[in-house]
Amino acid sequence: MYTRSEPAEREPDTSARPPLVRELLLVAGLFLVYKLGRQAANGHVEEAFRNAGHVWSFERAVGLPGEGAVQGVLLHSHTLVQAANTYYATVHFPATLAFLVWLYWRRPRHYVWSRRILAVLTGAALALHLLFPLAPPRMLQAAGLVDTGQVYGPTVYGETPATDSMANQFAAMPSLHFGWALAVAVGLIVATRSRWRLLWLLHPLLTLLVVVGTANHYWLDAIVVSALLSVAYAAMRLPRTPVRTHLPWQTAIPARRYASPAYARSGVRR
């Protein structure tokens, strides 16, 4: 009796792996463009608050739940709200970088595809940051939310958003925190064959709850970045996986069952 096992882990297709130095320079360049692009969108304070009022009113008009419902859960526990702030501050870049590194070494074809997806998504998001500056809900008085980063820590933002030289606090639309997390989850689901691979979706789900609960983003920020990501996926084909010629059942069935008819007629017995 033979039992069916999970498919063997595929060996990486090294022929599809791009040169390492080129990729390091490319990723570093994309990161620099990301930082400079966010800085270029800084300073539109009045417009950012005006847009925030429009987004808040639109969400209520279409019946989206208030962001405060998620924050209320976090505020029940000092430890929980600090954990959410830490997740927001520390997971975004390292998780995405680790994802790209793993794909580069283990799934080169999927690496190239995912890197292009992230580049297109980030470029579209930066363009929207320039066209639609938006103050996050933690700054909007009508929202009545707590700036959990400033109150409980840790935070990645300065106390005076208009003069923050480290980050653009008026680039809430769309949420690249959620967009990158969703791209990472989809990339891992596509590139792996584990029966548990759908659990990668917990990463964007947790990220969504964190960005909303800490009042750094509106629900609409996540909806818009999901739409942008969907367009990117529709425009780029999935990488093709080379077909393996090895037949797994050839080693699972005893060799004597493959004896040729001539051998059987010869009368030779084992």
Automatic annotation (TrEMBL):
Keywords: Membrane, Transmembrane, Transmembrane helix. The lineage of its organism: Bacteria, Bacillati, Actinomycetota, Actinomycetes, Kitasatosporales. Residues 55-234 form the Inositolphosphotransferase Aur1/Ipt1 domain. Its main location: membrane. The chain crosses the membrane at residues 87-105, 117-135, 170-191, 198-216. It comes from the Bacteria. Pfam families: PAP2_3. It comes from Streptomyces atroolivaceus. This is Phosphatase PAP2 family protein. It is found in: Membrane. CDD domains: PAP2_Aur1_like. It is a multi-pass membrane protein.
